[in-house]
Amino acid sequence: MSTTTKPVNQKAWLLVLPVIICVAFSAILPLMTVVNYSVQDIISPERRVFVGTEWFAAVMRDEDLHAALWRQLTFSLAVLAVEIPLGIALALSMPAQGWKASLVLVLVALSLLIPWNVVGTIWQIYGRADIGLLGAMLQKMGFDYSYTGNASHAWATVLMMDVWHWTPLVALLCYAGLRSIPDAYYQAARIDGASKFAVFRYIQLPKMRGVLMIAVLLRFMDSFMIYTEPFVLTGGGPGNSTTFLSQYLTQKAVGQFDLGPAAAFSLIYFLIILLLCFILYNWMQRVGTQEKEGGHE
What pLDDT is attached to residue 296? Predict the structure, then answer.
């Protein structure tokens, strides 16, 4: 008895071909170009010398890079420590339904619509002691505030600017997670006489774990790549107090035109972000698994 095999139609792959082409031109080809530059000493457009891993070794020994990496890690961790709890608190205080909910959602999302360079300009004016509301108010209170002359003030201002700009994103994600919780959970909690904290601890927080994981990863990756806002606000100063990794990379590539070291550092930068996000994601998954196992016992 002979059996015939029906040919498989592979034309469906043509539907994803435009996506593959876009990804190739926007990500793969630039990445391969950076890899090519990272192993060469570009003396001139016509003359290049293969140097292998020399630029990677030079970059890893760079003390300025170590300092920028430490500043970047501190900033990203501070962003998560402030924005995640603040976003959760803001989401919990937002109305659940009606026209008030729609109005609050629009108002909360306003800062997300502002371009990054405009955010830096807003806070640059806002922090000035002569015309800025924040700077003038602190000066009248007797506080010698200057984000252009004091490293601590500059760092705190950049952090406040990022919190103002991106906490609404965390709040909106948490709000979506809260609205997806069935009302039956709240009814059961009311019957059991659970307190507001107990409802948050055992119902809302576990149900928001998925959106919180997305919020943490998005904010960590974005804060780790921050460039425009601190560049417009402080220019990386005073000194190098707000020079983060992206600005350090720009100085290498554009300011000094060291394409080889800049390309090597770009790849190291990329791998650092991948590694830290991988560690953070697995840690959050492990914590969630342990809490579920503890709840079943």
Answer: 52
Domain count, the chain: 1
Rounded to whole angstroms, how far apart are CA atoms 128 and 135?
5
In a domain, 277, yes or no: yes
Q: Which residues contact 79 (CB under 8 A, 6 or more apart)?
A: 159, 162, 163, 166, 219, 220, 223
290 in a domain, yes or no? Answer: yes
pLDDT of residue 88: 93
Question: Is 33 part of any domain?
Answer: no
Residue-number span of the structural domain to which 223 is assigned: 53-116+147-296
**Does a structural domain hold residue 74?**
yes
* Residues present in the chain in total: 297
Cα Rg of the chain (Å, integer): 25
**In whole angstroms, what is the distance from residue 241 CA to residue 211 CA?**
33
Peptide bond between residue 7 and the one before it cis (omega within 30 degrees of 0): no
pLDDT per 10-residue tile (average), the chain, 297 residues: 64 78 78 84 76 85 86 92 94 86 88 90 88 86 86 91 93 90 88 87 86 89 89 86 87 78 87 86 75 56
Transcribe 106-153 into DSSP letters.
HHHHGGGGS-HHHHHHHHHHHT-TTT-HHHHHHHHTT----TTT-HHH
Q: Report CA torsion sign: 80, 81, 85, 90.
A: negative
DSSP 97: S
The CATH number of whichever domain residue 191 belongs to comes to 1.10.3720.10
Q: 3-state SS of the chain: helix, strand, coil percent to 5?
A: 75, 5, 25
